[in-house]
Design brief:
39% of the residues lie in helices and 13% in strands. The longest helix has 20 residues. The radius of gyration is 22 Å and the shape is globular. Strands 1-2-3-4-9-10-11-13 form an eight-stranded parallel barrel, surrounded by eight helices. The protein has a two-stranded antiparallel ribbon with strand order 5-6. With 453 residues, the chain is α/β, with parallel strands linked by helices. The N terminus is likely disordered.
């Protein structure tokens, strides 16, 4: 009988999503939170070391090139992630380092250099969260009179990723020689100007940085609209997404895997990672008390501004105890309607018919990501259900507050997942690609890659 090589047991991917102040909008106010440390790099290094001790795959920093309007009541500033992640790289040895950068407001050559440098600096732990930036206020920071529309942003993003890929591949793996005896530092026949000419970019290349330990940093993407899904299926190796129900997550998961396979990709190399915000108590009652304590800190003015930002609808004149009218969303324009987070909120209102207070409390917990309230066993059960039910390959863990919100998850939920054989006991590699079970790609310009294309 022929030997059939078996694949190792499927393992959860777990990232720590670091958001200043915590993922509950009032997390910075909760007792034990440390708002005075939010600009202290050692605070984030400590969080990353805690995640590494729990054998998490990566830490993740979101970003956006704009100061949002509603900072009065929440920690809504942004730290430039690559600078911050470089400092975290120096304080850790294994955990992946994923940062957001926008294809609308960067140029490919600059971005390629930044992430290549982080990958070298960290020994192969960098990941790029690719976003197109829909926030309209951002355009004014870059001399634009208006934000490019949804389709145009994704068209630019596709060409942007193609250019960055060519730049990261422009040095073949064998190009760097560094041989003192022969006096040859680099084989310049293996360094390639990319000579890209397209609709949005003209880039000569090559990159002035040798190929990185991972070949390319891991490609991560966070859009769930139709354009976002198509983009993710073509390019992404990990997808950050938001779902409120198992059925919704299963539908998204199946669609992404089907589209990726249709493009000739291995669907196992596209990791679907919903957000999960856990409120953990030793009993169900204790967990609910914790959740309610956070919601007691909600400031409605802030919550309503968040809701307006997501939906385009101003509910400030509606009493908090009134049911949210479904027809309030009828006049929202098509640009907002295609956004995945708009559709998520619309789904909550259509299914549950909440009061305005219930809706803003629901969104306060994690901006539309899945909130689970319960004992460590219940949290683990839910994770296992989604993982084994083909709704997720893992999760972006979004603690309501720091550091205790993450410490609870790491000390009480992770051991249960490990006991059930769902999560690693130790790292088996050093790069983010190895953590995710992703192959190291060959350069597009290598003889082997050209021969098998």
């Amino acid at each position: 009988m022929a030997h059939v090589e078996s694949r190792p047991a499927r393992q959860l991917v777990l990232n720590l999503f670091i958001y200043p102040g915590g993922h509950h909008e009032a997390g910075w106010r909760y007792p034990g939170a440390r708002p005075e440390r939010l600009l202290d790099i050692t605070f984030y290094q400590d969080l990353a070391r805690s995640a590494e001790a729990a054998k998490f795959d990566a830490v993740f920093f979101a970003d956006g090139p704009v100061q949002v309007d509603n900072i009065r009541h929440a920690s809504r500033f942004r730290l430039e992630p690559l600078t911050w992640l470089s400092a975290i790289a120096a304080a850790t040895s294994h955990i992946g380092l994923i940062g957001t950068a926008s294809t609308t407001y960067y140029e490919p050559y600059n971005l390629a250099r930044l992430y290549a440098s982080l990958d070298h600096l960290s020994g192969g732990r960098a990941g790029w969260n690719i976003v197109t930036t829909a926030v309209p206020q951002a355009s004014g920071n870059f001399g634009l009179s208006e934000t490019p529309n949804h389709a145009e942003r994704y068209a630019r993003a596709a060409e942007f990723v193609d250019v960055v890929t060519k730049l990261w591949d422009s040095w073949e793996d064998e190009a760097l020689i560094a041989d003192p005896a022969s006096g040859v530092f680099a084989d310049d026949t293996k360094i390639h100007p990319i000579e890209h000419v397209g609709r949005h970019f003209r880039v000569k290349g090559a990159l002035n940085t040798p190929r990185t330990p991972q070949g390319r940093p891991v490609y991560v993407q966070a859009g769930s609209s139709d354009d976002g899904r198509s983009f993710a299926a073509r390019y992404a190796e990990a997808i950050f997404t938001a779902h409120q129900s198992l059925a919704s997550a299963q539908g998204f998961y199946a669609d992404i895997k089907r589209q990726a396979e249709g493009l000739g990709r291995d669907p196992d190399h596209v990791k679907v990672l919903p957000g999960l915000s856990p409120y953990i108590g030793s009993t169900e009652a204790e967990a609910k008390q914790l959740y309610e304590a956070f919601n007691d800190l909600v400031q409605p003015d802030y919550s309503l501004s968040q809701l307006k930002q997501i939906t385009g609808v101003d509910f400030s004149g509606l009493p908090l105890n009134a049911e949210v009218p479904l027809d309030a969303f009828n006049d929202v324009g098509p640009a907002k309607r295609v956004a995945s987070r708009f559709q998520l909120v619309l789904g909550i209102v259509a299914r549950e018919r909440p009061t305005l207070r219930q809706l803003i409390d629901r969104l306060a917990g994690a901006r539309g990501h899945y909130v689970v309230v319960g004992t460590p066993e219940k949290i683990a059960d839910e994770i296992q259900l989604w993982f084994e039910g083909k709704a997720a390959d893992g999760f972006n863990v979004m603690p309501p507050w720091y550091p205790a919100g993450f410490d609870l998850f790491a000390s009480q939920v992770v051991p249960i997942l490990r006991k059930r054989g769902l999560f690693r006991a130790d790292y088996t590699g050093r790069t983010l690609r190895e953590h995710y079970g992703l192959p190291r790609p060959r350069s597009l310009y290598s003889d082997h890659a050209r021969a098998t294309a």
